[in-house]
Amino acid sequence: MDLPILSIDTRAIYENTAVLVEACRKAGLDVFAVTKAVGGLPAAARAMLSAGAAGIADSRVANLERLRKSGIGAPLMLLRSPTAGESSRAAAAADIILVSALPGIAEISQAADKQGSSREIRLIPMVEMGDRREGIMPELLNEVVEAADKLPGVRIRGLGANFACLAGAVPTVDSLRCLEELAKGLEGRYAGGLVLSAGNSSALSLVFEGRWPRLSYPAHLRVGESILLGWDIMTKEPLPGLRQDAFRFYAEVIEVAKKPSLPAGPVGCNAFDEQAEPVDRGCHWRAVVAAGRQDIGAGSLIPLDPGVEILGMTSDHTVLAVDEAESSLAVGTCLEFRLDYGGLLGAMTSPYVGKIVKE
Fold this sequence. Notes:
This protein is of the alpha/beta class. The protein is 28% helix and 25% strand. It has two domains: 10-229, Alpha-Beta Barrel (TIM Barrel), CATH 3.20.20; 247-358, Elongation Factor Tu (Ef-tu), domain 3 (Beta Barrel), CATH 2.40.30. It is built from eleven helices and 17 strands. The two termini are 18 Å apart.
Protein backbone atom coordinates (compact mmCIF):
# COMPACT_ATOMS: atom_id res chain seq x y z
CA MET A 1 0.00 0.00 0.00
CA ASP A 2 1.30 3.45 -0.92
CA LEU A 3 2.06 6.04 1.75
CA PRO A 4 0.68 7.89 3.62
CA ILE A 5 -0.88 5.20 5.77
CA LEU A 6 -2.80 5.29 9.03
CA SER A 7 -2.33 2.19 11.20
CA ILE A 8 -5.18 1.38 13.61
CA ASP A 9 -4.58 -0.96 16.55
CA THR A 10 -7.93 -2.21 17.83
CA ARG A 11 -6.26 -3.97 20.77
CA ALA A 12 -5.15 -0.60 22.09
CA ILE A 13 -8.68 0.72 21.59
CA TYR A 14 -10.04 -2.27 23.52
CA GLU A 15 -7.61 -1.79 26.40
CA ASN A 16 -8.27 1.95 26.67
CA THR A 17 -12.01 1.39 26.63
CA ALA A 18 -11.76 -1.27 29.35
CA VAL A 19 -9.80 1.07 31.64
CA LEU A 20 -12.25 3.92 31.15
CA VAL A 21 -15.33 1.71 31.53
CA GLU A 22 -14.00 0.45 34.86
CA ALA A 23 -13.11 3.94 36.11
CA CYS A 24 -16.54 5.25 35.12
CA ARG A 25 -18.29 2.25 36.65
CA LYS A 26 -16.74 3.04 40.01
CA ALA A 27 -18.16 6.57 39.70
CA GLY A 28 -21.62 5.22 38.85
CA LEU A 29 -21.37 5.93 35.12
CA ASP A 30 -21.78 3.99 31.89
CA VAL A 31 -19.76 4.77 28.76
CA PHE A 32 -21.13 5.33 25.28
CA ALA A 33 -18.05 4.99 23.07
CA VAL A 34 -17.85 7.53 20.24
CA THR A 35 -16.66 6.42 16.80
CA LYS A 36 -16.97 9.67 14.83
CA ALA A 37 -13.19 10.26 14.69
CA VAL A 38 -12.76 6.83 13.06
CA GLY A 39 -15.64 7.20 10.62
CA GLY A 40 -17.84 4.63 12.33
CA LEU A 41 -15.21 1.92 11.85
CA PRO A 42 -16.91 -1.37 12.78
CA ALA A 43 -13.66 -2.94 14.03
CA ALA A 44 -13.20 -0.05 16.48
CA ALA A 45 -16.83 -0.28 17.62
CA ARG A 46 -16.52 -4.02 18.21
CA ALA A 47 -13.41 -3.46 20.33
CA MET A 48 -15.20 -0.81 22.37
CA LEU A 49 -18.26 -2.98 22.96
CA SER A 50 -16.14 -6.02 23.86
CA ALA A 51 -14.44 -3.87 26.49
CA GLY A 52 -17.75 -2.99 28.14
CA ALA A 53 -19.12 0.11 26.43
CA ALA A 54 -22.89 0.35 26.89
CA GLY A 55 -23.40 1.47 23.29
CA ILE A 56 -21.87 3.35 20.38
CA ALA A 57 -22.36 7.02 19.57
CA ASP A 58 -21.60 8.90 16.37
CA SER A 59 -22.47 12.26 14.86
CA ARG A 60 -23.07 10.98 11.32
CA VAL A 61 -26.11 9.00 10.22
CA ALA A 62 -24.02 7.28 7.54
CA ASN A 63 -21.65 5.97 10.21
CA LEU A 64 -24.53 4.54 12.26
CA GLU A 65 -25.85 2.86 9.11
CA ARG A 66 -22.40 1.41 8.49
CA LEU A 67 -22.29 0.03 12.03
CA ARG A 68 -25.77 -1.49 11.77
CA LYS A 69 -24.98 -3.10 8.41
CA SER A 70 -21.84 -4.63 9.93
CA GLY A 71 -24.03 -6.57 12.35
CA ILE A 72 -23.64 -4.46 15.48
CA GLY A 73 -26.82 -4.79 17.54
CA ALA A 74 -25.84 -2.62 20.53
CA PRO A 75 -27.69 0.65 21.19
CA LEU A 76 -26.66 3.34 18.72
CA MET A 77 -26.79 7.03 19.61
CA LEU A 78 -26.84 9.89 17.10
CA LEU A 79 -24.88 12.78 18.61
CA ARG A 80 -25.95 15.54 16.23
CA SER A 81 -29.56 16.44 15.49
CA PRO A 82 -30.33 15.16 12.00
CA THR A 83 -31.14 17.59 9.23
CA ALA A 84 -34.64 17.42 7.73
CA GLY A 85 -33.28 15.32 4.88
CA GLU A 86 -31.64 12.86 7.29
CA SER A 87 -34.58 12.36 9.66
CA SER A 88 -35.94 9.19 8.02
CA ARG A 89 -32.53 7.55 7.93
CA ALA A 90 -31.80 8.66 11.50
CA ALA A 91 -35.08 7.20 12.74
CA ALA A 92 -34.23 3.89 11.09
CA ALA A 93 -30.62 3.68 12.28
CA ALA A 94 -30.53 5.29 15.73
CA ASP A 95 -32.00 4.09 19.00
CA ILE A 96 -31.20 7.36 20.79
CA ILE A 97 -30.90 10.84 19.30
CA LEU A 98 -29.54 13.95 20.99
CA VAL A 99 -31.80 16.88 20.08
CA SER A 100 -31.86 20.61 20.74
CA ALA A 101 -34.71 22.19 18.73
CA LEU A 102 -38.43 21.49 18.57
CA PRO A 103 -38.69 21.60 14.73
CA GLY A 104 -36.02 18.92 14.51
CA ILE A 105 -37.83 16.80 17.10
CA ALA A 106 -41.02 17.13 15.04
CA GLU A 107 -39.16 15.93 11.91
CA ILE A 108 -37.88 12.85 13.76
CA SER A 109 -41.38 12.16 15.09
CA GLN A 110 -42.88 12.38 11.62
CA ALA A 111 -40.21 10.08 10.18
CA ALA A 112 -40.67 7.52 12.97
CA ASP A 113 -44.44 7.63 12.60
CA LYS A 114 -44.24 7.09 8.84
CA GLN A 115 -42.05 4.04 9.31
CA GLY A 116 -44.84 2.50 11.36
CA SER A 117 -42.44 0.79 13.72
CA SER A 118 -43.52 -0.14 17.24
CA ARG A 119 -40.08 1.04 18.36
CA GLU A 120 -40.04 4.52 19.83
CA ILE A 121 -37.00 6.70 19.21
CA ARG A 122 -35.50 7.76 22.52
CA LEU A 123 -34.68 11.47 22.59
CA ILE A 124 -32.26 13.24 24.90
CA PRO A 125 -32.73 17.02 24.79
CA MET A 126 -29.40 18.80 25.12
CA VAL A 127 -29.32 21.69 27.57
CA GLU A 128 -27.12 24.74 27.03
CA MET A 129 -24.59 24.58 29.87
CA GLY A 130 -22.09 27.20 28.76
CA ASP A 131 -20.18 25.81 25.78
CA ARG A 132 -22.45 27.73 23.39
CA ARG A 133 -22.77 25.01 20.79
CA GLU A 134 -26.05 23.08 20.68
CA GLY A 135 -28.47 23.09 23.56
CA ILE A 136 -31.83 24.39 24.78
CA MET A 137 -31.63 27.34 27.14
CA PRO A 138 -32.68 26.08 30.60
CA GLU A 139 -35.58 28.51 30.90
CA LEU A 140 -37.09 27.12 27.67
CA LEU A 141 -36.63 23.44 28.50
CA ASN A 142 -40.10 22.76 29.92
CA GLU A 143 -41.76 24.37 26.91
CA VAL A 144 -39.81 22.19 24.47
CA VAL A 145 -40.32 19.00 26.48
CA GLU A 146 -44.07 19.56 26.87
CA ALA A 147 -44.43 19.99 23.11
CA ALA A 148 -42.27 16.91 22.39
CA ASP A 149 -44.37 14.79 24.74
CA LYS A 150 -47.35 15.25 22.43
CA LEU A 151 -45.57 13.86 19.37
CA PRO A 152 -45.88 10.21 18.23
CA GLY A 153 -43.01 7.84 17.67
CA VAL A 154 -40.60 9.54 20.07
CA ARG A 155 -40.06 9.53 23.81
CA ILE A 156 -38.02 11.82 26.03
CA ARG A 157 -35.46 9.60 27.78
CA GLY A 158 -33.35 12.09 29.67
CA LEU A 159 -31.30 15.27 29.48
CA GLY A 160 -27.81 15.87 28.14
CA ALA A 161 -25.05 18.43 28.25
CA ASN A 162 -22.00 19.18 26.16
CA PHE A 163 -18.71 20.69 27.28
CA ALA A 164 -15.33 21.77 25.91
CA CYS A 165 -16.15 21.53 22.21
CA LEU A 166 -16.71 25.09 20.98
CA ALA A 167 -16.07 27.63 23.74
CA GLY A 168 -14.00 25.25 25.88
CA ALA A 169 -16.40 25.38 28.83
CA VAL A 170 -15.08 22.99 31.48
CA PRO A 171 -17.50 20.57 33.16
CA THR A 172 -17.80 21.18 36.89
CA VAL A 173 -19.64 19.60 39.80
CA ASP A 174 -21.90 22.66 39.84
CA SER A 175 -22.83 22.26 36.16
CA LEU A 176 -23.62 18.59 36.71
CA ARG A 177 -25.78 19.43 39.71
CA CYS A 178 -27.59 21.98 37.58
CA LEU A 179 -28.35 19.32 34.96
CA GLU A 180 -29.57 17.03 37.73
CA GLU A 181 -31.90 19.72 39.08
CA LEU A 182 -33.35 20.33 35.62
CA ALA A 183 -34.09 16.60 35.36
CA LYS A 184 -35.81 16.71 38.75
CA GLY A 185 -38.10 19.38 37.33
CA LEU A 186 -39.31 16.82 34.78
CA GLU A 187 -39.93 14.04 37.32
CA GLY A 188 -43.28 12.31 37.29
CA ARG A 189 -43.80 12.61 33.55
CA TYR A 190 -41.91 9.54 32.43
CA ALA A 191 -42.38 5.91 33.35
CA GLY A 192 -39.05 4.26 33.93
CA GLY A 193 -37.32 7.49 34.91
CA LEU A 194 -34.70 9.56 33.16
CA VAL A 195 -31.03 9.21 32.33
CA LEU A 196 -28.37 11.91 32.14
CA SER A 197 -26.02 12.08 29.17
CA ALA A 198 -23.71 14.01 31.44
CA GLY A 199 -20.82 14.98 29.22
CA ASN A 200 -17.96 13.82 27.05
CA SER A 201 -14.28 13.00 27.40
CA SER A 202 -13.66 16.39 29.01
CA ALA A 203 -15.42 15.13 32.17
CA LEU A 204 -12.99 12.27 32.77
CA SER A 205 -10.71 14.39 34.94
CA LEU A 206 -13.56 14.57 37.47
CA VAL A 207 -13.77 10.78 37.37
CA PHE A 208 -10.05 10.10 37.76
CA GLU A 209 -9.64 12.73 40.48
CA GLY A 210 -12.53 11.26 42.48
CA ARG A 211 -14.62 14.43 42.17
CA TRP A 212 -17.51 13.03 40.13
CA PRO A 213 -20.70 13.62 42.15
CA ARG A 214 -23.16 10.86 42.94
CA LEU A 215 -26.21 11.74 40.87
CA SER A 216 -29.86 10.91 41.45
CA TYR A 217 -30.25 9.41 37.98
CA PRO A 218 -28.47 6.78 35.89
CA ALA A 219 -25.84 8.59 33.82
CA HIS A 220 -23.31 8.01 31.09
CA LEU A 221 -20.46 9.82 29.40
CA ARG A 222 -19.93 9.99 25.64
CA VAL A 223 -16.24 9.15 25.27
CA GLY A 224 -14.30 9.18 22.01
CA GLU A 225 -11.03 11.12 22.01
CA SER A 226 -9.79 9.76 25.33
CA ILE A 227 -10.42 6.17 24.22
CA LEU A 228 -8.72 6.69 20.88
CA LEU A 229 -5.75 8.82 21.90
CA GLY A 230 -5.40 7.86 25.54
CA TRP A 231 -5.20 11.35 26.97
CA ASP A 232 -7.07 13.96 28.98
CA ILE A 233 -8.53 16.14 26.25
CA MET A 234 -8.19 19.30 28.34
CA THR A 235 -4.47 18.91 29.12
CA LYS A 236 -3.34 16.46 26.40
CA GLU A 237 -1.57 14.52 29.16
CA PRO A 238 -1.87 10.70 29.26
CA LEU A 239 -4.65 9.34 31.45
CA PRO A 240 -3.66 6.68 33.99
CA GLY A 241 -3.44 3.21 32.46
CA LEU A 242 -4.21 4.32 28.90
CA ARG A 243 -2.19 3.75 25.74
CA GLN A 244 -1.29 6.47 23.26
CA ASP A 245 -0.32 4.14 20.40
CA ALA A 246 -3.68 3.12 18.94
CA PHE A 247 -2.92 5.16 15.80
CA ARG A 248 0.25 5.75 13.84
CA PHE A 249 0.61 7.83 10.68
CA TYR A 250 3.36 6.98 8.18
CA ALA A 251 4.57 9.33 5.45
CA GLU A 252 7.47 9.18 2.99
CA VAL A 253 10.35 11.64 2.72
CA ILE A 254 10.54 13.11 -0.78
CA GLU A 255 13.33 15.69 -0.24
CA VAL A 256 16.25 16.26 2.15
CA ALA A 257 18.30 19.42 1.71
CA LYS A 258 20.23 22.12 3.54
CA LYS A 259 18.42 25.44 3.13
CA PRO A 260 18.19 28.91 4.68
CA SER A 261 15.54 29.07 7.39
CA LEU A 262 14.18 32.49 6.41
CA PRO A 263 12.29 33.29 3.18
CA ALA A 264 13.90 35.38 0.48
CA GLY A 265 12.48 38.75 -0.55
CA PRO A 266 9.11 40.26 0.39
CA VAL A 267 6.56 37.90 1.99
CA GLY A 268 2.79 37.84 2.29
CA CYS A 269 0.27 35.30 3.49
CA ASN A 270 0.83 31.64 2.74
CA ALA A 271 -1.51 29.30 0.88
CA PHE A 272 -3.90 29.19 3.83
CA ASP A 273 -4.04 32.98 4.37
CA GLU A 274 -1.76 32.72 7.38
CA GLN A 275 1.15 35.00 8.17
CA ALA A 276 4.12 32.68 8.66
CA GLU A 277 6.57 33.52 11.45
CA PRO A 278 9.70 31.48 10.72
CA VAL A 279 12.50 31.22 13.28
CA ASP A 280 15.99 32.18 12.17
CA ARG A 281 17.98 28.95 12.41
CA GLY A 282 20.52 29.93 9.82
CA CYS A 283 21.19 27.42 7.07
CA HIS A 284 20.01 24.02 8.30
CA TRP A 285 18.82 20.57 7.25
CA ARG A 286 15.20 20.20 6.18
CA ALA A 287 13.12 17.30 4.98
CA VAL A 288 9.83 17.29 3.10
CA VAL A 289 7.29 14.47 3.46
CA ALA A 290 4.48 13.67 1.06
CA ALA A 291 1.52 14.50 3.30
CA GLY A 292 -0.38 17.66 4.06
CA ARG A 293 -3.73 19.24 4.80
CA GLN A 294 -5.51 17.03 2.28
CA ASP A 295 -4.38 14.10 4.41
CA ILE A 296 -4.90 15.30 7.99
CA GLY A 297 -7.24 18.27 7.66
CA ALA A 298 -6.77 21.00 10.25
CA GLY A 299 -5.02 18.65 12.67
CA SER A 300 -1.39 18.14 13.58
CA LEU A 301 1.26 15.47 13.19
CA ILE A 302 3.60 14.72 16.09
CA PRO A 303 6.91 13.12 15.03
CA LEU A 304 7.91 10.09 17.09
CA ASP A 305 11.56 11.08 16.64
CA PRO A 306 12.08 13.86 19.25
CA GLY A 307 14.80 15.37 17.08
CA VAL A 308 12.39 16.07 14.22
CA GLU A 309 10.34 19.28 14.29
CA ILE A 310 7.48 20.28 12.02
CA LEU A 311 8.04 23.71 10.50
CA GLY A 312 4.93 24.00 8.37
CA MET A 313 2.36 22.25 6.24
CA THR A 314 0.66 22.99 2.93
CA SER A 315 -1.94 21.01 1.02
CA ASP A 316 0.40 18.17 0.04
CA HIS A 317 3.75 18.82 1.79
CA THR A 318 4.98 18.88 5.37
CA VAL A 319 8.34 20.56 6.01
CA LEU A 320 10.51 19.33 8.88
CA ALA A 321 13.64 20.53 10.65
CA VAL A 322 15.83 17.42 10.93
CA ASP A 323 19.18 18.70 12.21
CA GLU A 324 18.69 16.79 15.48
CA ALA A 325 17.07 13.68 14.00
CA GLU A 326 18.11 10.48 15.78
CA SER A 327 18.58 8.59 12.52
CA SER A 328 19.74 9.72 9.12
CA LEU A 329 17.02 10.61 6.64
CA ALA A 330 17.03 10.21 2.88
CA VAL A 331 14.54 10.32 0.06
CA GLY A 332 12.33 7.27 0.49
CA THR A 333 12.62 7.13 4.29
CA CYS A 334 9.31 6.35 6.02
CA LEU A 335 8.68 8.61 9.01
CA GLU A 336 6.29 7.73 11.83
CA PHE A 337 3.97 10.19 13.55
CA ARG A 338 1.32 10.41 16.23
CA LEU A 339 -1.75 12.56 15.53
CA ASP A 340 -3.89 14.88 17.58
CA TYR A 341 -7.68 14.59 17.44
CA GLY A 342 -8.03 16.86 14.41
CA GLY A 343 -5.32 14.93 12.61
CA LEU A 344 -6.99 11.60 13.34
CA LEU A 345 -10.34 12.92 12.14
CA GLY A 346 -8.75 14.24 8.96
CA ALA A 347 -6.71 11.11 8.23
CA MET A 348 -9.68 8.79 8.74
CA THR A 349 -11.87 10.78 6.38
CA SER A 350 -9.23 11.52 3.73
CA PRO A 351 -9.41 9.31 0.61
CA TYR A 352 -5.66 9.88 0.16
CA VAL A 353 -4.67 8.03 3.33
CA GLY A 354 -4.56 4.24 3.32
CA LYS A 355 -5.88 2.47 6.41
CA ILE A 356 -4.48 -0.67 7.97
CA VAL A 357 -6.61 -2.18 10.74
CA LYS A 358 -4.90 -4.51 13.22
CA GLU A 359 -7.47 -6.74 14.94
